[in-house]
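INFO batch 0412 | record 1 of 1 | parsing
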Amino acid sequence: MEAVLNSTTTYLPTTRHLSSTHSYPLPFSLSFRESRRKFSPKQASVLRVFASSQAAPASSAAVTIPSQMKAWVYGDYGGVDVLKFDTAVSVPPVKEDQVLIKVVAAALNPVDAKRRQGKFKATDSPLPTVPGYDVAGVVVKVGSQVKELKEGDEVYGDINEKALDGPKQFGSFAEYTAVEEKLLALKPKNLDFVQAAGLPLAIETAYEGLERTGFSAGKSILVLGGAGGVGSLVIQLAKQVFGASRVAATSSTAKLELLKSLGADLTIDYTKENFEDLAEKFDVVYDAVGQCDKAVKVVKEGGSVVALTGAVTPPGFRFVVTSNGEVLKKLNPYLESGKVKPVVDPKGPFPFSQVVEAFSYVETSRATGKIVIHPIP
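INFO prediction complete | emitting tokens
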């Protein structure tokens, strides 16, 4: 249990060498270049970065930003087999309101898998795509309109303001990614990059869902899927940030102790009992597993059911999170005090060479907390 909740710096597998390259044609220029030529130091911008945390660029050392980078890419929708490792992907351009991040760690979310499968193709950005929403890393370049962040800052965030509406073509499963300043926050000082990378999309989803229900001090909540990436944070935010009077949560037998350690007052083993048969009713049911039809049976009259996946049964509702760095800034004190803790799956982090394996794992829906990719070259 301690290994799940506390520092993840012991999980540092070695990345195996990858040499295969793949090129994908694009209809516009600010994207992946097919060129494989080498760039001299004069052709790359050099910035000075001051960083001290785990796996960050060396303190007081000049960091060269190349024109090309290593990244995972898919040029077609489909299964995990469409994922390809490319050693010559163009480093994304930095817009005026953006910063360029040297990625130290990135995290997988179910939306990454669904996007790769083509479930959002109607509103997706053009292929090919570098996947990845969550990022933690170091700022190495700032746009002209960036006001607060500076080179050398250690940051984290969900790089896509709208998860499904034109998400970035250059995601976080790469050496570099460009992100709007408003989507980022400084990394909590007590967390390493692995822990920070697993937070943004999940904690913002947990927070926004609770806000949308009008959740407040003294209310009760049932969390379906309490050991997952979002569920584990809903439990903590409901208790520590919103002041819940009672928190119940479901999980498999092996994860009940985790739920208790996160603050759940009532733990329900879904392999042995049906939560919908509970006599107790709740002000809010936060459904992270797709059982809205059952969730509505245990919500109080006038209560709310948040449904993240699956069919929605009234009074249930669904929303798609909006990435917002201000939410991360608001929650940073709870993270730095230890009142809210990141939960990283103990099977990880997965090295950059094992992104395919990480995708396969997230698609089992059996992860504990978040699946993180680290180290990234």
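INFO post-check: The chain has a mean pLDDT of 87.
INFO record closed
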